[in-house]
Amino acid sequence: MELRTYLSIINRRKWIIFLCAAFFILLTIFGLNSIPNKYLATTRLRILTPKSGGANYVDFNIYYASRLMNTYASLASSNTMTQDIKNKLQLTEDPNINVSVIAESELIKITSEETDPTLSAVIANTVAEMLVAQSNASALNVKSSAEKAINDRLTQLNKELDTARKVYRVLIIPYDQKKSQVDALNNQILNDQQLLISLKTIYEQNIQLTHRDEVAMTALVNQISDLEKQIISNQGKVDQLNQLVAQDSIQVASAQGDITLKEQEYTTLIAQFDQIQSLAIIQGNNQLTIEEKAVIPKKPSSPNRPLILAIGIILSAFLSVIVAFIVDNLDDSLHNIQQIEMPVNGTDFGEVYITGNPVQIWLNRFSQGDMLASNQALRRIHRQIQRLKLKTIAFYGTEPGIGNLDLITRISTEYANSGCKVLLLDANISASILDSYFPGIENKGGLSEYLNGELTVEEIITPTNIDNLVIIQTGSNKYSDGLLLSSKKMLVLLRTLKTEYDLVFVVIPPFSSESDIDALVSHLDGVIVVLHRGQSKLKNINNITKQLLEINAPLMGYITTHS
User: Fold this and answer.
1) Under 8 Å CB-to-CB from 442, ≥6 apart: which residues?
2) Are residues 382 and 398 in the same domain?
3) Domain of 191: which CATH number?
């Protein structure tokens, strides 16, 4: 479709567009008025970023803070929180709570939208207070649990250290005694070995003397022997004590290591306890705080009535145009010549604007341009009549109940005023229609009576108040047999009229009539198909065109009337 086609459809269906648009706009206004106002209240919470470290340094755990914010946001929008708020405030419906985390910040936004502005603020603040209370309780429980666990372990370690020290004291005393005995025996052995060396030296010196004291030598030998036995005995005792010391040293080392480990654990726990106390001072008591409380909103947040109304108007206009196009597409009426599937052979004479309606004249429908188009169409018909030297011409309508007399009487009148002898023949036997166009003329009989032999040609010709224009009426309606139109008498009448009048215009029945007009049409000099814009049905136009082509009618062309 071209743009001109779309615009013509819009112009043709403008009343449908207007009424549909008005209906949709009123529907939008009605629906908009039925939507209650809602008020939005907002509370902002701040979550402190968790810190670690000690007195000398502080480390901010941003990743953990992000997880905490998402956790609290999920808790605030959970079904449990919704039910708690509903029960606490004794609401009949679930509150409308929306929670969001503000990016690149420590803030959580809690919004509540209700029809009551006070209730929306109360709900938002209550959610925030419950979250803060839950956060404080959780932080206190964690701190108390950690401190209790450390204190319990410290108490247990004190008991274990006392036990380990007692065991150590029990083991260390005999261990030290054995080591002292070993040291004493080693010193005794060393002294005995030195004495033994001295005695052996004296014995070697005395044995070389010529005159020696045998008794003294024997005593010396006995002394050396006793000393060697004593050294061997003491060395055995030392070896035995060393084995016992080695065994005791393992037990002592184990007891001492146990004490060391417990002392290290005790020191670590004390440091952790001090760190918890330090972090509590650094972090503060509250991890989650209310940064900004919700206030009672004064203006509604929704619906956005101007925006909805604007969208409604736009959609109404769009839907109205769609409805207009649907109606136009379902309409089988003729609106432009291009719609005809089987083109009518002959000339397109154009459009003739027929109107006598004062309202249409007042609305300026019958403009100067319309007059010019009508005159051009009539001149084309006149040139065709002159060129082909036609005398009997029929105007063939396409729709029952839509007359062609507006056009025919106008053309007949103009030819009569130009000095031509014109006869207007109403061949629509089933219904007389000329009476309404020529009031005051008595209907003494017409074509029906002539074809039935009741009247002569001269008797059925009736003059009008227009010079040079006479008519033949249909006559009485008691004869409605369409077969009369194809009788020989009808053909004789046409030949007679052609000799006596310059032009004979014949009004033949419309397409849907049951009259047999094939013979009548085929004996005329010319046939003009009259199309009615906005009224003629495309199906009928195509059927009548096919019918005229089948009977080889002298088709001059078609003319479109538009009122």
Assistant:
1) 462
2) yes
3) 1.10.287
